[in-house]
């Protein structure tokens, strides 16, 4: 229930209330409520819990995390 | 899959393990709050790769595990009432009540349905206007935005046949209860990245300061978990106790304001009993007065509930990080996923289930 899984937003149903969308989880497409991430765009990745997107993945921050780990690796070498 | 594969990369995992090994000097006890993280640690075998002097203990972040027995028994009593369609997240089905579980209610003909999202319970209520649809609204801060929205939808659609059993719990009061206990062993916390995606982490600096514990907001993939461990160890070894965010791609300091506003429009803080642990002041959410018409526990008067907990199960101590599943005398003997004595043995977030599945029952 509580495992947050990121998925790619494939479709936003702008007319729906609450706002719904289709999200691709590695090939499994689910209907997801997007009402808490109104700034979402098709192609964004979101974290989904019990059928609701609760956050959008921040690509810059994701790269920053991986860069920090690369720096640790290069210091060790 | 983007945002997953790169955080399961073996080279990055090895880099972090090596860094943890060279950083750690003293024995420390680290608690991951979230049962999803417990399962991820054991599923990926990370617990076996970490230094022996680092002890991982598993926290209370398993919502079905801490849902009080009284409420489960009341849910069981409601689920067998005629004309009731009882809807629940799948995790709840095998959780033992005093005498049986929802799965056995369904097996004996009760209309118990698993829903993936609480909005499905709304759809079921719309499709069955002559029947009462009850939703078991449990969970931590992660499910609260969804459960709150279902109640708002019921109101907007003027559904008269929809109600909820609310058993919401919150992480920060549980952390304080653990840290304030005389038997506390926890030196640092990995805070749940999913909970913080909703709530942010503005509630944590006061806890870190008061109890002098590092708190690291941590995600769910191997690289995320190990980075959380590394940051915690770095702080512990240098005598620091700050809040750090190691799940920046999803979590901000303030969290999802829109979701929080919706939660607080439907729910209000209440004292909550945690199964096996006891009552913790203002540790949960209950329905606000203006939504009391949707309270299934008053709509269906279910009385004469007598609870009976297993005398062998030590789930409460496991959920507080005081004992490990393998220290329970019933573990993998009287208590297995097929014959559970306590909820942690059946939940996808339960520590006992994690040990049983990933440590081959030893």
Protein model, in words:
The complex is a heterodimer of chains A (77) and B (362). Chain A contains 1 helix and 5 strands; from the N terminus they run βββββα. With 77 residues, chain A is an alpha+beta fold. Chain A has one domain (5-74): SH3 type barrels (Roll). A 5-stranded antiparallel β-sheet of chain A has the order 3-2-1-4-5, with no helix packed on it. In chain A, a hairpin with a 2-residue loop joins strand 2 (20-25) and strand 3. The mean pLDDT of chain A is 92. Chain B has 362 residues and is an alpha/beta fold. Chain B folds into 2 domains: 1-309, Rossmann fold; 315-359, no CATH class. Chain B is 38% helix and 19% strand. In chain B, the strands form 2 sheets. Chain B has a 6-stranded mixed β-sheet with strand order 4-3-5-6-11-10, with helices on both faces. The longest helix of chain B has 16 residues, at 222-237. Chain B starts with 9 loop residues before the first helix and ends with a helix. The relative contact order of chain B is 0.17. The mean pLDDT of chain B is 95. The chains are: A alpha+beta (77), B alpha/beta (362).
Salient structural properties:
heterodimer; A: SH3 type barrels; 1 helix; B: 362 residues; alpha/beta; Rossmann fold; 6-stranded mixed beta sheet; 16 helices; 11 strands
CATH topology type of chain A:
SH3 type barrels
The largest chain-to-chain contact, stated as pair and per-chain residue counts, equals: A-B, 36 and 53 residues
In terms of structural class, how would the helical and strand content of chain A be classed? Answer: alpha+beta
Order of helices and strands of chain B: HEHHEHHEHEHEHEHEHHEHEHEEHHH
Whole-angstrom Rg of chain B: 21 Å
What name goes with the CATH superfamily of the largest domain in chain B?
Answer: HypD, alpha/beta domain 2
| Low-pLDDT stretches of chain A | none
How many structurally independent domains of chain A? 1
Instruction: Show unreliable segments of chain B.
Output: none
Report the mean per-residue pLDDT of chain B as an integer: 95
Could you say which structural class the secondary elements and strand pairing of chain B correspond to?
Answer: alpha/beta
Total domain modules of chain B: 2
Determine the number of helices of chain A (DSSP H or I, runs of at least 4 residues).
1
Number of E-state strands of chain B:
11
Question: In percent, how much strand structure appears in the residues of chain B?
Answer: 15-25%
Measured between the Cα atoms of the first and last residue of chain B, the distance is: 33 Å
What is the terminal-to-terminal distance of chain A?
A: 41 Å
């Amino acid at each position: 229930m509580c495992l947050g899984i990121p998925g790619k937003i494939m479709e936003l149903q702008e007319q729906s209330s609450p706002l719904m969308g289709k999200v691709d989880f590695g090939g499994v497409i689910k209907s997801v409520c997007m009402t808490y991430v109104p700034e979402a765009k098709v192609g964004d990745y979101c974290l989904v819990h019990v059928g609701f997107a609760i956050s959008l993945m921040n690509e810059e921050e994701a790269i920053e995390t991986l860069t920090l780990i690369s720096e640790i690796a290069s210091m060790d070498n | 899959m983007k945002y997953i594969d790169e955080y399961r990369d073996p080279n990055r995992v090895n880099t972090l393990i090596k860094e943890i090994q060279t950083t750690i000097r003293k024995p420390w006890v680290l608690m991951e709050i979230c049962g999803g993280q417990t399962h991820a640690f054991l599923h990926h075998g990370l617990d076996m790769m970490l230094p022996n002097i680092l002890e991982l203990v598993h926290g209370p972040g398993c919502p079905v595990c801490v849902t009080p027995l009284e409420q489960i028994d009341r849910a069981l009593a409601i689920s067998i009432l005629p004309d009731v369609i009882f809807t629940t997240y799948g995790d709840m089905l095998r959780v033992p009540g005093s005498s049986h579980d929802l799965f056995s209610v369904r097996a004996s003909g009760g209309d118990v349905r698993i829903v993936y999202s609480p909005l499905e319970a709304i759809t079921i209520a719309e499709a069955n206007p002559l029947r009462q649809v009850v939703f078991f609204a449990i969970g931590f801060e992660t499910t609260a935005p969804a459960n709150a929205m279902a109640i708002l939808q019921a109101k907007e659609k003027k559904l008269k046949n929809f109600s909820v059993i609310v058993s919401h719990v919150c992480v920060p009061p549980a952390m304080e209860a653990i840290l304030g206990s005389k038997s506390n062993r926890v030196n640092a916390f990995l805070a749940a990245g999913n909970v913080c995606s909703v709530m942010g982490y503005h509630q944590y600096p006061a806890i870190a300061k008061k109890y002098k514990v590092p708190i690291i907001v941590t995600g769910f993939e191997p690289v995320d978990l190990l980075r959380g461990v590394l940051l915690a160890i770095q702080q512990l070894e240098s005598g620091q106790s700050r809040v750090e965010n190691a799940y920046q791609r999803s979590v901000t300091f303030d969290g999802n304001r829109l979701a929080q506003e919706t939660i607080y429009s439907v729910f209000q803080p209440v004292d909550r009993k945690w199964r096996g642990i006891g009552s913790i002041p203002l540790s949960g959410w209950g329905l606000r007065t203006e939504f009391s018409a949707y309270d299934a526990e008053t709509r269906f008067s279910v009385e004469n509930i007598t609870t009976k907990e297993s005398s062998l199960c030590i789930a409460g101590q496991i959920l507080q990080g005081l004992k490990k599943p393998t220290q329970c005398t019933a573990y993998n003997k009287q208590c297995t996923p097929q014959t559970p004595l306590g909820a942690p043995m059946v939940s996808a977030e339960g520590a006992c289930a994690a040990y049983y599945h990933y440590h081959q029952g030893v």
